[in-house]
Specification:
mainly alpha, single chain, two-stranded antiparallel sheet, globular
């Protein structure tokens, strides 16, 4: 078995590699490029969620988005999150691995609707004609999802740092 690598959450305000990558993501007006960049950003963030849920100081070198997403969102309470990411990942796989894209835009619309559609289906959400506007809608949905993951990561990290019993007592006092 390979040695695990020390792991720390990225500081997204100061990590130069992240900031450069994020700048390309924010500036992308090409739908496929936006998808690829957003997929990488989410995968990186999911590693942080795995770390926080496990409460460890190291992680193995995990490969494969499905594995990473499955570990990050293990448990029946996260079925919905896994479904959202499945649509995004299937669209990404069509860009990365297939010449024939049968339902690429539908997969993206499904992800966008599941994150930002307020209960609307992929067919019910407004899907812009202009590619740059579709890329913008995808960026917004990816950002919303990333914020949700960040909140979950903070939750688990705080709980693990304090210890479950201390965390429970502190949060019981707040209610």
């Amino acid at each position: 078995m390979r040695k695990q690598k020390p792991f720390e959450l990225r500081d997204i305000k100061t990590d130069e590699e992240y900031l450069q990558f994020d700048e390309r993501f924010r500036g992308s007006e090409v739908l496929e490029y936006t998808l690829l960049l957003g997929h990488v950003l989410i995968e990186d963030q999911l590693r942080g969620l795995i770390w926080a849920r496990l409460g460890t100081d190291s992680l193995p070198d995990l490969k494969g988005f499905e594995l990473i997403a499955g570990l990050a969102f293990a448990g029946s309470e996260y079925d919905d999150a896994r479904d959202k990411l499945a649509s995004l990942n299937e669209a990404r796989n069509q860009v990365g691995h297939k010449l024939h894209r049968t339902d690429f835009e539908l997969k993206l619309r499904t992800f966008v609707a599941s994150v930002t559609g307020k209960g609307k289906s992929a067919a019910e959400i407004e899907w812009p004609e202009e590619e740059a506007e579709r890329a913008r809608a995808l960026r917004i949905a990816i950002r919303f999802f990333m914020v949700w993951v960040a909140v979950k990561t903070d939750y688990y990290a705080e709980r693990n740092n304090l210890g479950v019993e201390t965390w429970k007592s502190r949060h019981a006092e707040r209610q």
